[in-house]
């Protein structure tokens, strides 16, 4: 099977963490029974600075036609739109392709210095709605002399797809032995009518998925419980802005953005990218942590495998995730953000070595 992967290297450390990730995918391809065709596409702040376009139409069209999209870090602090906002092609991709489900895994990784040392291992998922909520008016907010307005929007059609995705993920996690089949809807339904609407739709979809447990929680309480008793969660579904904030909290519990992968998934396309930014302060120094990018690629393999019924891709995804865990268990493979001294190349080499050391099919 030949798979075309759109590659958006982005800005700052983006190209530095993308290169070893593509090399690892090439290593996995034969055993997975696939051939990857990587197509590099211009996009990002540097592209905007040089051409006046952050996401050229040709890049958008090529990404739309690809089997999946790998996106690295985007944005530079000194390159902005005229209104002062950041260059963010990743948001444009979400809107253009209807990538409503922002998937953010939160799990304990060996060697990552999380703040909950000694606590039970973490393994839950935040699914952030990625096209509506407070981001619905992205680029269209109103700023006046004495006030500014942004509009929160929640629709039934998108919310139903989001919740159904949450129940499907909880069901699959239970089958894989990674969760107990529980979905929490996180909102602020006690204050805002829009969130009461959101919660009501969740309850409707829960009634159609009786084999999966369904609970509700307010976002402020959820932030507290993620720190105090995170093991209570399996799958969290929430609004765009709330998910943006909670997913960074989740990354902090894991040990930092350097080990936090993500996916933005729609009905036809999906984008896989690390949660971290472009880190221009360390760009070019060869010290960036490649693990979030590598784990995002593992999520891509799993999505492609599940979507196409291809067991080899799903197995390759699991192997790559295990290789990252095995590599980071060794302090010599940890980059500075994890308290170590490894370079990007050394960390990636450790993952490659751990991948090779795994028994075939293991």
Automatic annotation (TrEMBL):
GO BP of this protein: L-leucine biosynthetic process
Q: Where is the Isopropylmalate dehydrogenase-like domain?
A: 4-351
Superkingdom:
Bacteria
Q: Which InterPro entries match?
A: ICDH/IPMDH (IPR050501), IsoCit/isopropylmalate_DH_CS (IPR019818), IsoPropMal-DH-like_dom (IPR024084)
GO MF entries: 3-isopropylmalate dehydrogenase activity; magnesium ion binding; NAD binding
Q: What is the required cofactor set for this protein?
A: Mg(2+); Mn(2+)
EC number(s) stated in the UniProt entry for this protein: 1.1.1.85
Classification via SUPFAM superfamilies: Isocitrate/Isopropylmalate dehydrogenase-like
Keywords assigned by UniProt, alphabetized:
Amino-acid biosynthesis, Branched-chain amino acid biosynthesis, Leucine biosynthesis, Magnesium, Manganese, Metal-binding, NAD, Oxidoreductase
UniProt family annotation: Belongs to the isocitrate and isopropylmalate dehydrogenases family. LeuB type 1 subfamily.
* Complexes and interactors: Homodimer.
In Swiss-Prot or TrEMBL terms, this protein is called 3-isopropylmalate dehydrogenase
Q: Which organism is it from?
A: Rubrimonas cliftonensis
């Amino acid at each position: 099977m030949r798979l075309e992967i759109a590659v958006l290297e982005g800005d700052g450390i983006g190209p530095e963490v993308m290169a070893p990730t593509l090399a690892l995918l090439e290593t996995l391809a034969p055993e997975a029974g696939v051939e990857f065709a990587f197509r590099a596409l211009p996009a990002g702040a540097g592209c905007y600075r040089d051409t006046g376009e952050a996401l050229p139409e040709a890049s958008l069209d090529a990404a739309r036609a690809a089997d999946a999209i790998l996106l690295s870090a985007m944005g530079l602090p000194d390159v902005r739109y005229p209104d002062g906002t950041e260059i963010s092609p990743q948001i444009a991709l979400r809107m253009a392709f209807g990538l409503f489900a922002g998937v953010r895994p939160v799990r304990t990784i060996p060697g990552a210095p999380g703040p909950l040392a000694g606590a039970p291992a973490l393994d839950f998922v935040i699914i952030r709605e990625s096209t509506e909520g407070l981001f619905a008016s992205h680029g269209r907010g109103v700023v006046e002399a004495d006030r500014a307005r942004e509009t929160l929007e929640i629709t039934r059609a998108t919310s139903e797809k989001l919740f159904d995705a949450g129940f499907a993920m909880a069901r699959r996690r239970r089958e894989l032995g990674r969760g107990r089949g529980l979905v929490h809807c996180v909102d602020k339904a006690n204050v805002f009518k829009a969130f009461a609407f959101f919660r009501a739709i969740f309850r409707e979809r829960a009634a159609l998925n009786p084999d999966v447990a369904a609970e509700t929680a307010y976002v402020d309480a959820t932030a507290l419980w993620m720190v105090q008793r995170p093991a209570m969660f399996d799958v969290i579904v929430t609004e765009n802005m709330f998910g943006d904030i909670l997913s960074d909290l989740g990354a902090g519990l894991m040990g930092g953005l350097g080990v936090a992968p993500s996916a933005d998934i729609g009905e036809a396309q999906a984008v896989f990218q690390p949660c971290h930014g472009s880190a221009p302060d360390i760009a070019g120094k060869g010290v960036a942590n490649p693990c979030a990018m590598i784990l995002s690629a593992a999520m891509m393999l799993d999505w492609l495998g599940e979507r196409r019924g291809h067991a080899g891709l799903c197995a390759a995804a699991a192997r790559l995730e295990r290789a990252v865990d095995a590599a980071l268990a060794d302090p010599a493979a940890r980059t500075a953000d994890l308290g170590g001294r490894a370079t990007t190349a050394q960390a990636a080499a450790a993952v490659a070595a751990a991948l090779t050391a795994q028994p075939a099919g293991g």
